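A student in our group prepared the protein record below, which I am reviewing. Thanks in advance; the entry in question is below.
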Amino acid sequence: MSVTTYYLQITDIAQLKAKTESRGLQVKECTTKQWEYNRFLYTWVGKKWRWFDKLKWSDEEWQAYAEADDLRTWVGYVDGSPAGFFELNQQAEAAVEIVTFGLASNFIGKGYGGYFLSEAIKSAFAWDNAQRVWLHTCTLDHPSALNNYQSRGFQLYKTETGG
């Protein structure tokens, strides 16, 4: 099966087309780093979208990743229940990657995605005055993912197709 990967970026916070209606979604940063929680969120949110890459990681690899100084994690909550999460990775040259972004199955299609992504972009640009926020998605992701990213202001800068 051929998979197409799309690389997108925003190079100025002014490009953000924020969705401001939260529909009750509360976004909170996990300021106490707990690698087990990152692993849980990755497994829980990602299983539907075939997020398998990190599932083979050892506890030590998860801990090194999730508790690194250049990684921050946010969780979205609806009525006290976790609804999704995103991870930001600070990189060289004032760039921040949205490494992971997703909603759990029960919360997809309820109008949370645009607001949640807007909060991820704002959080990324707020981190040490970032000048570029980027991410990648692919054809295995939710059918509306690419549209959501572009609707919030992301611009496509590279596409790769492979099997």
Remarks:
- The chain has a mean pLDDT of 95.
